[in-house]
From TrEMBL:
<comment type="function">
    <text>Catalyzes the transfer of the enolpyruvyl moiety of phosphoenolpyruvate (PEP) to the 5-hydroxyl of shikimate-3-phosphate (S3P) to produce enolpyruvyl shikimate-3-phosphate and inorganic phosphate.</text>
</comment>
<feature type="domain" description="Cytidylate kinase">
    <location>
        <begin position="6"/>
        <end position="215"/>
    </location>
</feature>
<comment type="subunit">
    <text>Monomer.</text>
</comment>
<comment type="similarity">
    <text>Belongs to the EPSP synthase family.</text>
</comment>
<protein>
    <recommendedName>
        <fullName>Multifunctional fusion protein</fullName>
    </recommendedName>
</protein>
<comment type="similarity">
    <text>Belongs to the cytidylate kinase family. Type 1 subfamily.</text>
</comment>
<feature type="binding site">
    <location>
        <begin position="10"/>
        <end position="18"/>
    </location>
    <ligand>
        <name>ATP</name>
    </ligand>
</feature>
C-alpha cells in the first residue's frame, strides 16, 4: 500500500511548522520540514563563501546534492555541527529563499524529500509539497493567515527567545519573501488544485490541528 502523506503548504510564518509537527505527533507519523533543507543549503553556501546575491547555480546545486545533513535526537546537523539555531534566523530565511529560487537546487533536494515518505506515514510542510514533491498525497492543505498577523506571531516568537526584532521590518521581510516565493519560475508558491484552504488568522493552533485531523479522517 502507498505511504499516507499529508502536505501542508503556505507562506512564511503562516504556522505550517507548528501545525504540521503537531498533526504528525498526533498521528504518530514522520515529519518533514522541507524549508530546513533550503536553510541548510543557504548556510552551507555562506560557509563555503559562495555569493547568494548573484548565485552560481551549478556550484550551489552541487552543494545541495552533497549536503551533509544529519538528524540526532531532534537536532539538525550540518556535518557534525548542530545548526538548529543558526538556520532559524531571519537572515537564514532570506538566504533560503534566494537559493530555493534556483531550479538546480530544487532538483538536487527532490529525492531526499521523497525518501522521507515512510510508513506509518508522513506530514510534510513547505511551499511545493502538494504541487511538486508529493503530487499524489491523500490530503493537501494550503495554510494562510494575514501578513499583519503573521508578522505579529513571528515578532512574539523572536522576542520570547530574547532576539530583538521590529514589527515593521519583519512584515516587510516576510512580504518580500512571499513575493519571491510566489513569482519564481521554479515551483512557485501556489495552492495545489486539489488543496483545501485553511485560513488560520482567527484560529488557535488547536483549532487548526482539529480541522486537519477531521479532513484526514474523512479521507480514510
Ligand atoms: O518554511 P521556511 O521559512 O523554513 O522556508 C525558508 C525558505 O525556503 C522559504 O522562504 C522558501 O523560499 C524556501 N522553501 C521552498 N520550498 C519549500 C520549503 C521552503 O522554496 N518546500
Amino acid at each position: 500500500a502507498p505511504v499516507p502523506v499529508i502536505c501542508i503548504d503556505g507562506p512564511t510564518a503562516s504556522g505550517k511548522g507548528t501545525l504540521a509537527s503537531e498533526v504528525a505527533r498526533r498521528l504518530g507519523y514522520h515529519y518533514l520540514d522541507s524549508g530546513s533543507l533550503y536553510r541548510l543549503t543557504g548556510l552551507a553556501a555562506r560557509r563555503a563563501g559562495l555569493a547568494l546575491e548573484n548565485p552560481d547555480e551549478a556550484r550551489l546545486s552541487a552543494l545541495a546534492r552533497q549536503l551533509p545533513v544529519g538528524f540526532a535526537g531532534g537536532h539538525i546537523l550540518l556535518g557534525q555541527e548542530d545548526v538548529g539555531e543558526a538556520i532559524r534566523t531571519e537572515a537564514a530565511g532570506m538566504d533560503a529563499s534566494r537559493v530555493s529560487a534556483l531550479p538546480g537546487v530544487r532538483q538536487a533536494l527532490l529525492e531526499l524529500q521523497r525518501s522521507c515518505a515512510r510508513l506509518p506515514g508522513l506530514v510534510a510542510d513547505g511551499r511545493d509539497m502538494g504541487t511538486v514533491i508529493f503530487p499524489h498525497a491523500l490530503l493537501k492543505v494550503y495554510l494562510t493567515a494575514g501578513s499583519a498577523q503573521r508578522a505579529e506571531r513571528r515578532h512574539k516568537q523572536l522576542i520570547s527567545k530574547g532576539i530583538p526584532a521590529k514589527l515593521d521590518g519583519l512584515r516587510a521581510d516576510l512580504e518580500a519573501r512571499d513575493a519571491r516565493d510566489q513569482n519564481r519560475v521554479a515551483s512557485p508558491l501556489e495552492p495545489a488544485q486539489d488543496a483545501l484552504l485553511l485560513d488560520n488568522t482567527h484560529l488557535t493552533i488547536e483549532d487548526s490541528v482539529d480541522q486537519v485531523l477531521r479532513w484526514w479522517q474523512e479521507r480514510q
